[in-house]
Amino acid sequence: MAILTPSLSKWFFGQVLSSAGNVLREAGYDVLLYELADPGSRDRFFAGPGLAGRADGVLILALQPSPQELAALDRQGLPIAVLGSNQPGLAGVSVEDRAAGLSAVRHLLNLGHEQIGFIGIQEQVGSTLGGVPPAQRHLGYRDALAEAGLEPDPGNEVFDENTVSGGSAAMAKLLCAGNPPTAVFVASDEMAFGALRSLRDAGISIPDDVSVIGFDNHELAELLDLTTMDHSVARQGSEAARLLLANLHATDPAAGSLTITATLVVRGSTAPPRPLRSKNRLQRHVG
User: Fold this and answer.
1) Which of 82-86, 208-212, 224-228, 250-254 has the weakest average pLDDT?
2) What span, in angstroms and rounded, lies between the C-alpha atoms of 193 and 256?
3) Distance between CA atoms of residues 63 and 85, nearest Å
4) Residue pair 256/250 in contact by the 8 Å Cβ criterion
5) Residue 85 contacts by C-beta under 8 Å, 6 or more apart in sequence?
């Protein structure tokens, strides 16, 4: 079986590849990994000789394949399953990212926060990673504010690369905003780790002064006491692999799909706001 991934190094893809590979190997299949990390490697793969005779099926991870790319695979007669996309006519696994973003910000609203910031994932030039899930998380953030009758403040929405350093830089920008938030929803745990670092470096208490909620339930999230949204990363990989196996002999090659609902995992990085203490501490930092 062939697995196409935009990255072999990121935690998310490592978890997915491990769980999907286990399912495929248990079914008696070897796994061929193709890292399509940039437009050049992606173009060469889809314009190349193809996978006929080398793979029995293709699992595509978070690449948001174009119609032309799907047609190139379809001409080879191979079953396809996708992860991170809900494209019509394709078997695959997706997450209710917009609903998850809504749930994350509802948690902060229910704690009493009204000034809520957002740290989002900025698409990198030359990246082959599709931007649908991060964009949906941002929409969920906006949905929650609208539901609470709050106007979004563009000054409290910052986007950077999906890394610890990107999250750290984004949090530093939020702290310099005219009216810094008392809570922040971060679109990935890796970025949230960076946000926590910036807050602690500034002497700002978590969660007394600023609450932080992430997204992923990364294996380090519990160690860092990070509240987060768990979207069953390992399960996504295993379920996508099972769908691919089921489609090997299905009469409808696009049969089967699964949508996963993310769940809130409450830890120590979120708490009700303490308005006077938070305002004074944040103003000292900005000043």
Assistant:
1) 250-254
2) 36
3) 8
4) yes
5) 60, 62, 64, 65, 92, 94, 130, 132
